[in-house]
């Protein structure tokens, strides 16, 4: 059944004198009645799928709507030319977040982390961190347990659905998962890990879900970039000893409450926000015309 709260996860880790990620792994072993090897292999399989999705990105592929495609390659060229002010590491985080979001829009295979709409955050940071710092794949896989456990608690206490809680529930959750997991991989204390997750979620509280034409493309893909970049910054703050004043569980509960208060038009219905700008209306009209045209 997983953990009811991050505090429960922390208690389980303390009782077993094990890291938070391992408490999540052991809970999975218990819940699914599998061995440590089986649960590690399953998580490694997910990480390999993230890597494959990154490798399989196609620069010239466009989504059916024509709204997405090629931007990941454009960003990568800027980084390779040394023109990215954000630098090599962060430039590649941005690049990979764009690539993953575009691949999702183009119906290619991705890993929902925790959802397809937020699929770019965790792999963008994880793959880039492994690449730049030479981290063993097993360590990165262990970090995914921390990410998964964090996402499970958020899903239980609040929501990971844009239709229920807005984009704060999707990209906000992904960013919190990523920040906590990255801090775990970096050897942060439990307090630092939970602070990083809390920082990331606090940074995106209230983020609405208002996609143009009802598609998970604009502004969703760029929001994955925001979530990924924020996760790195939040991990750095926590590793610097900056700690959250509001416990992570309370931040999660606040997110859930905000989602309930959010108008329905801002929860994936495309009835408000960017979706009803003049450009948004044109996109919706164009898509409607396309859908009425017989496809060969």
TrEMBL record:
Enzyme Commission number(s): 4.3.1.17
Organism: Anaerostipes caccae (strain DSM 14662 / CCUG 47493 / JCM 13470 / NCIMB 13811 / L1-92)
InterPro entries: Fe-S_L-Ser, Ser_deHydtase-like_asu, Ser_deHydtase_asu
Keywords from the UniProt entry: 4Fe-4S, Gluconeogenesis, Iron, Iron-sulfur, Lyase, Metal-binding
A GO MF label: L-serine ammonia-lyase activity
Pathway assigned to this chain's UniProt record: Carbohydrate biosynthesis; gluconeogenesis
Superkingdom of the organism of origin: Bacteria
Record's protein name: L-serine dehydratase
Catalytic activity: L-serine = pyruvate + NH4(+)
GO biological process: gluconeogenesis
Cofactor or coenzyme needed: [4Fe-4S] cluster
Domain Serine dehydratase-like alpha subunit: start-end pairs: 18-275
Sequence similarity: Belongs to the iron-sulfur dependent L-serine dehydratase family.
